Amino acid sequence: MRHPIDKKTTLSLALLAIACSGAAQAQAQQGDPLYRYQWHLMNYGQSVLGDSKPAFAVDLGIDDLHDYNVRGKGVVVGVLDEGVEIAHPDLAANMVPNGSRNFDPGRPLHDPTPTSPGGSHGTAVAGIIGAVGWNGIGVRGVAPAARLKSFNGFGESGGLSEDKIVYSWWDGAESKDVAVSNNSWGGSPAFVLGLTQDQVAAYERPMSATRNGLGTVYVKAAGNGYASVPFFGFNMCGQDVIDYNVGCSQTGLDQRNNLFNVITVAAVNAAGKRSSYSSPGAALWVSGLGGEYGHQRKYSNVAGATRVDPAIVTTDLTGCAKGFNNYLPKNAWNLERVNDLDSAQSTIDDSCNYTGMMNGTSAASPTVAGVTALVLQANPKLSFRDVKYILAATARKVDPGQPAVKHPNGTLLVPGWVTNAAGRPFSNWYGYGLVDATAAVTRAGTFKPLPALVDSGWQQVQPASAPAIGSPAAPATLKISIASAVRKVESIQLGWTTDYAITSGAPLPLQFVLISPSGTRSHVMPAMSYGSGDLFSPGYSIPFIASNAFLDEPGQGVWTLEVADVPLADAASKGALQSFKIRVLGH
Fold it and tell me: Is the pTM of this model over 0.85?
């Protein structure tokens, strides 16, 4: 997103020193032919791939950072995904030699290049983060000088497992110098298998200990569950749920999205609005750019209102026999191509080494990971908490007119933008907004580290007489008083149990709202979303979920969980709120 031309004058002296060291070199280097189609990097309303033009200035706000040589130099970014084609001509120079890990038995240990023609996801993600810039070919990454490592958690021998996550996040030899970990994976679960308190600690302690105690910055996709809950090839989310427009699956139902160390990323499209698929929820932190689908009608007759809106242009598996560029159109839609970049017939680039169809929160996450690399180049002494705070504090409020969603009986289901008691605007669609690279890098250069973390620990109430869950006029409430000296909140984790039996897959009748001591209301689980509770609980229960809506509010005082049966009206209660637990993290 464009800044005023004098924005560069706000860059710190340290960043200007970086700039001077590389500006002349940048002028002498060759360009990147597909850069003009990368609206997420520089958007002046130009024609790109797709039948609609991007709205002017909807981009990452990189502006002159690359010209100032702020390109992610010295920052190692790990990509836990399908394997990356490490010899790709637009990635190879940025891949750390022998720095990647192949989990497939019987294959080269440090070369996770996919063998499947459809295994292009990791290569596309890596290109968004750190495709080589100014080399005369293809595209440019958000952090075109960052160093990349690939961990093929989704390999030829099977899907992602706990041991692969642990290895890639903190325990593996190749992960030890990773400063930013991108995770363009997750799910919209049909059933909830929430983390226990011990499991949360087993993640967060080693995650916080990385980078010599500063903590790796873990960036993760929110999910693509706004209109779908996939289960063995079927969409479990019915049209009745979709029509309520609260989102089928909330991002907090993907359990790792709630970890304190994780930045959960929503997707914004080229119009500056929520991407059609992007999972909403209170566990969001910020948004990146994910676009839509990138088709053009002259090639594609695939149905969908957003099919012809721009996607993200990035690297693909090389050659025309595999990848998004050629293999996907033929096998998914029986089409030779869906846009001007596809296939060897392309007059833009006939190498088939690039795609204009990358999208999803899988694409939005690496845009944020790339911006994080720029921030850490500017100030490598920042902790993961510092980086989270900077990204939220400098994010831009997109779609300011986001409409509130109400039930037919008038009950507010999902608010639009809500300004919390500390003056921070938050949205269940966008978190704190779209990341702004220049603003974040500028803030990083002079940022004073956050005070030491204050953790209230888990506090729980489980009354002998559980309050009945009534209508919105008579909700059940449970309260917990936090005495710990949390002057300013950074994140809230919570959970609850009820004995209210729901119908799986039907619109969830229950609404869960967390109310801070200052009175801010966070819609943690909106009614009329897809009803997927704890698989092992007879009532609708969520053992672990987060709300990030309270940044900088005071954490001390009484926190209230309010639960209402939205369609109930005057009927008798169908269940009770049995317990409520909360953990307040801040400083």
Answer: yes
